[in-house]
Amino acid sequence: MAAPVLHIGNKNYSSWSMRPWLALRWGGIPFQEHVIPLGGEGYGRSEIKEVRAVSPSGRVPALHVGDAVIHESIAICEWAAEQTPSLWPADPIARAQARAAAAEMHAGFTAIRRDMGCNVRRRLDREPDWPEDTRKDLARLFELWGGLRARFGNAGGFLFGQRTVADAMFAPVCTRLRTYAVTAPETAQAYCATIFADPVFKEWEQAAEAEPWTVEQTESLYR
């Protein structure tokens, strides 16, 4: 069987694409990468023709494994962990906590996602004045990261001491905190520094910085 193909969006903007890409790379799973520049006709309505051709949901990422299509980030990460079990912690309680954290990121933190559009290469000079629900999301985020690293992190800088799916799910959030100059506690800063120092993350970051494409609706957030 040919190597799976991961269809992703612009690396500078597509946080959901970053998550399974990291998981697959961290798991040492060979795959081909196909970047689809987002924007233009159909953008924001899941109707981009090139995306619809590879994803039944009209969204990326989508992983093609043989004749099967896996079209949700967290499902692709789960598939990766089935190939490489070390992408989840070995201890059953730690593994359950890691899955809970990944699911919370997948379904929650809606205010952060609303107000902090992903833009890996952009840096604001000062932190915006966030609405109350965004501040609550940030407080919960810092509480979650601090608690997991204190209980499971041991000597490692990741949430569970090693790179897991949970870290893949939260890596784009670290870039958002950096982009928007968010004031964060030392534990959160240390966690983000661990993500930023990871060589696989650095590959994604460098590619994002080199991309020629822009998404006008996203860039308008910074004007």
Question: What does this entry look like structurally?
Answer:
It is a single chain. The protein has 223 residues and is an alpha+beta fold. The protein has 2 domains: 5-84, Glutaredoxin, CATH 3.40.30; 85-205, Glutathione S-transferase Yfyf (Class Pi), Chain A, domain 2 (Up-down Bundle), CATH 1.20.1050. Helix content is 51%, strand content 7%. It contains 10 helices and 4 strands. It has helices spanning 15-26, 49-52, 73-83, 92-107, 110-115, 132-152, 165-179, 186-197, 199-210, 216-219, and strands spanning 5-8, 32-35, 62-65, 68-70. It has a 4-stranded mixed beta sheet with strand order 2-1-3-4. A hairpin with a 2-residue loop joins strand 3 and strand 4. Helix 1 (15-26) runs parallel beside helix 3. The mean pLDDT is 94.
Layout: helices, strands, pairs:
Layout (H helix, E strand, L loop, with lengths): L4 E4 L6 H12 L5 E4 L13 H4 L9 E4 L2 E3 L2 H11 L8 H16 L2 H6 L16 H21 L12 H15 L6 H12 L1 H12 L5 H4 L4
Parallel strand pairs: 1-2
Antiparallel strand pairs: 1-3, 3-4
